Amino acid sequence: MSATMSGSGSAPCRFAHYFVICGIDNETGLEPDALAALYQWLEADRQGRDPEAVAAGENFDQSPLKRTFKSKVLAHYPENIECNPFDQDAVNMLCMPKGLSFRTQRDSRTPQFHSFLITREDGSRTYGFVHTFYEEVTSPQICSAMQTLHQMHQAEHNASAHNCPSSSSSSSSSSSSSSMDSLASSLDEVESPSSTSSSQGGRRSCGCSGEGYDSVRDTLYVSKAMCLITPMPFMHACKRFLSQVHRAVISNQPPPLPLESYIYNILYEVPLPPPGRSLKFHGVYEPILCQRPGVGELPLADFPLSKAFQLLGVENLVQIFTCVLLEMQILLYSQDYQRLMVVAEGITTLLFPFQWQHVYVPILPASLLHFLDAPVPYLMGLQSKEGTDRSKLELPQEANLCFVDIDNHYIELPEDFPQFPNKTEFIQELSEVLLSFGLSPEGGNTSSEPAVSSQTSVLEKELKSTSLSELVDDRKNGNLGGEALDVLELLQGNPTLERLQALAKRTGVKVARLEALAAGQKAVGEEGVGGRSPVEEEELRNAKLNVQLREVFAARFATMFADYESFVIQNSPDLESWLTNREQMHNFDKASFLSDQPEPYLPFLSHFIETQMFATFIDNKIISQWEEKEPLLRVFDGRIEKARLYNVRAPSLRSSVYQKCTFLKESAQAIEQRLRKMDHTAIHPHLLDMKIGQGKYQQGFFPKLQADVLASGPTNNKWSNRTCSTQRRVDRHRQHNDHLVLDNDLKEKYMQEARSLGKNLRQPKLSDLSPAVIAQTNWKFVEGLLKECKMKTKRMLVEKMGREAVELGHGEVNITGLEENTLIASLCDLLERIWSHGLQVKQGKSALWSHLLHYQTREEKNEQLSESPVSNGQEKRKPESSVGLPALRLSVIQDMRHIQSMGEIKTDVGRARAWIRLSLEKKLLSQSLKQLLSNQALTKKLYKRYAFLRCEEEKEQFLFHLLSLNTVDYFCFTSVFTTIMIPYRAVIIPIKKLSNAMTTSNPWLCVSGELGDSGILQITKNVLEMKFDCQNLGKLTTVQLGHDNSGLLAKWLVDCVMVRNEITGHTYKFPCGKWLGKGVDDGSLERVLIGEFVVPCNDDDGGRGSKTPPLQRSPSQIRRISITSLTGRGNKPTTVQIQESIGEAVNNIIKHFHKPEKERGSLTVLLCGEGGLVWALEQFFHHGFRSARIFQKNVFVWDFYERTVAFLENADQIGDLQEKPEPLGLNSESFCRYVNAINSMPRNIGKDGKFQLLVCLGARDRLLPQWLPLLAECPVITRMYEENALLRDKLTVSSLIAVLETLHDFPITLESSLTKSVEL
């Protein structure tokens, strides 16, 4: 390799790899742009017209000056470089994305500058910098061809405009040319005022708007592009070099040396500056400076961030930046290619230390518009046509799209995406940096095209606010701005000339003026700071602003991920085994990382750590154990290290207090020092050994260069040999590493596979665009979507199954509610992308909802025809229990109607997401989508052949992956839509054998859940079922059931109450098993029943059964004993069982408080439910209790409490307790107060209910351990408890006190359904 390198001047170390000229090929003449034709073919196909007919016809209704023609690469030097092969098609397409464009002497012929980049397979990039100018056409053949085309256009136009002579052709051309107008579209409509002069008055009336071409009268010009292709983005240097070459071409004096000398010099004799150094090399007229950041600094980024911030404003830019971080689809839209590039490169630069991993095409050529159909995250730039507004732009998918209209300072964001942490303070800090450089944080259009009306005032403001030296060469717009001063005098307030004024601001118009300006610039240059020209000062200012803005962004990440290293899981012995098992392994402990973050950061971070860019960052961190650190990672780790030294605060104490960036000054100083003192000066351009007489200078024409001199570089160049040897050293080092570890290709292969789709499609192949290639690309997308679906569903299952999964060896333990929400949101996004792949015609912003609506319309039509209910072939769900609730009808349409009736959701995207959440919660997602896709006629009508949804095998696999989600319980609909009204159905099930199913009293019900309660609902007498609507109660916890004790049959033995959410189908059972009525059981007229979630168990539901334990019952408690049987005969629990159950009940409450707040579930269940604290203590108090029936009446524990209170109050009055120690006196006072308060409340909750309430209040107010000694020592105990009772065993009582005291650390709160109407 070294031999080839030295032969060509050591390509990897050279400043520029290629110099390219693109333009018109006089040999082949005028060819319509094939890409334009392909684009029209694709466009017709997309709109459902016959593409063949479109392709066949020539486009005569459009003026030939407006049409685009095929450009060619006329020359490129050198022929080829091994490390960066020349891709002719791609370079031609990106140098002239819209082909050749023609002008006449009447049109504006302002030179344009734009840049582009090509991303190679391995993710590395090559940059191109293009200077486009107009050159007079000298070939008579081309002039006559243009004349012929114009006459045909005239004839066509006269025919069509026969009836309306006044119509202007510009309107027809703008509508027909689709978006394939010429390169400088921003200047298309600008004509000099003379074009409306009287000489064309006659022609104007026939609709030609004076833009015709007459070969005798007019001079024809055609666009030509010069391009430098470089390995690094030295934008300013390349721009200055190219503009000096162009100046040499149009100058009336030939340049000091032939152009070959300058091009040879930049290709072969100018090296890349080494890291941390600056370099000076020579253009045609002036020296050019550039500098490269050092090893510990932020990587090179030469695109002016100030321009990006001015175009969009800080607020917008931060929002777009957030969308990029969350890997959404970002589409930039502008008339100006350079703006697209500046914004795209600006934003990706700010991602440090992360890197965009998906499709990245800052300038999307018109022929590649079908790429917007890509169902993957992308960052693309699309050139807008002048005058087209956003509404006309048909985009295949918008559910997850961030649309950025750069020219109009406007963005459209995806719905409900999380905000960047500390966004307000962050924007404030960025604004301060911009203000310190005299720029407005709001941004604003500083250049011509879009905001025509405000142009004058903007220009005036700029002239006032900016010093003269900065305006002489206004680098912000990359063109000479000094002329704006003169122009302003001429044009102020003249609306006709506002467009021209804008142009003049962009560039000097006449050659002579250019020369004068250059002379003037030298004069002003003497006054520049430290003998430097204003251009250099402006460049320095830009570089300093760039680096300071980037430092602010980098500092945010350094703060947010200060201790990311602690959470990286490194468990592989070597690189090879890590790469082999990469798919199966967890590399980052996400749950622990999130639990360590400040609350406000969580919504953003939980999404961000799921992205590909974060995964790649962590991969690089792990690989750095065995290999040299990736450069960005090295710099970032250095930053964190530095911050730790400065910051004594322990990194583990996370806080959301905003920390400003501390090294703004030093980073700017490093750049300033490099630019003020040059480290290297390249060899001056010199005469080459050339043939005399070739390439003669001719003003205004780019000469034909001598290829043989430019084909290869010098062989004896000092720096090339030096850099060559360093290169060899690096190569040797790398080979050595490779032998130690693993062949690099293999590593790349593994890494490619490990990082799912997107990488292989970083940039579409620009050269071959046959329909076959497009089909191949789509096939890659289909495969990628399936793989992504498999990974997402697996991740959701593993996270949700928690411990079960860990036992199976799947990594992380607990899933937080936040993480679950993030995973579900990303599933919604994936489904939207799948549904928008290969759409025939887009309708609405959500492709999935649009498909559902089509389906609904068809089904409802069928329903009307058959007059049968919409069960559309789906089986009805069986009743949840043998008695009670009627079956709930399952249907896609029914679920859609529920969603449509929710007024809170305003958009289609929102409705689609709600429907997905609902289907997931009902365990019907796979089934419903299968049903939706079973209507094949509809799918065919809506989707093209290559769409994912029409690939049968992949579709089946996809539905199968979704089916696996039925094995876990989700409450993702109930927990998100907390304010909606939900219909519930309740059924009361009596124990028929023993009870009057009929009752004469008036029953009532009150249902409570985690989010509220239904209020008291009266039930119609003897109708045991009711429906009611109320605001979402969340997961249900308790039911209060009672009656008013009226009539003769006022006793009621109830088995249980069943309540069902009619939207989600979730059913809860509230066991009772007791009487309600005076004089039976404990005389209760109302009971508080504790709910348990009923797991649906349909045999025919194909995997609908759930494997996770029911959420509403307390963990792993088997129902050992029923409280009602405690007083009767039956198996009584042993003392050991009783003590164990108390320990377990207390443990469960403690575990509850150790969970994150949002995931705790119901405390009521742990207190009063089966196996809860009340249940366990009731067993304790029943042990050895003398419950013999005295006068045939049951005795309850509450009777013991009442007698204890009577004794204590009596003793207190007599004064027996005076000698007792002080605390005991206080305890007896509180015990009596609580028991009396419960007894005197208006509710008839019975003696068991009163016992339950006392235990709950005692636990809440931390009094239980203080009451136990009172009860144990009260003389009443001997009459009511046997000798061996646990309550009479001092050791047991003191150990119980110790267990109950452990609850004192936790704030126990009680549901209002329990404590209602107790006055303490």
TrEMBL record:
Q: State the source organism's domain of life.
A: Eukaryota
Which residues fall in a compositionally biased region of kind Low complexity?
Answer: 166-209
Q: In this protein, which residues make up the domain named PLAT? A: 982-1090
Which PROSITE patterns would you find in this protein's record?
Answer: DENN, PLAT, RUN
Q: Which residues form the RUN domain?
A: 818-978, 1164-1315
User: What CDD domains is this protein classified in?
Assistant: PLAT_RAB6IP1 (cd01757), RUN2_DENND5B (cd17693)
Q: Which region ranges are annotated with the description Disordered?
A: 154-209, 860-882
- Name where it mostly resides: membrane
Pfam families from the xrefs? Answer: dDENN, DENN, PLAT, RUN, uDENN
InterPro entries recorded: cDENN_dom, dDENN_dom, DEN5A/B, DENN_C, PLAT/LH2_dom, PLAT/LH2_dom_sf, PLAT_RAB6IP1, RUN2_DENND5B
The record's subcellular locations are:
Membrane
Query: Care to name a GO molecular-function term for this sequence?
Result: guanyl-nucleotide exchange factor activity
Which UniProt keywords are present, listed alphabetically?
Guanine-nucleotide releasing factor, Membrane, Repeat
Q: Which parts of the chain are coiled coil? A: none
> What SUPFAM superfamilies does this protein's entry cite?
Lipase/lipooxygenase domain (PLAT/LH2 domain) (SSF49723), RUN domain-like (SSF140741)
Task: Report the sequence similarity comment from the record.
Answer: Belongs to the RAB6IP1 family.
The protein in question is named DENN domain-containing protein 5B isoform X2
User: Which species is the source of this protein?
Assistant: Carassius auratus (Goldfish)
Q: What is the lineage of its organism?
A: Eukaryota, Metazoa, Chordata, Craniata, Vertebrata
Encoding gene (name)? LOC113065410
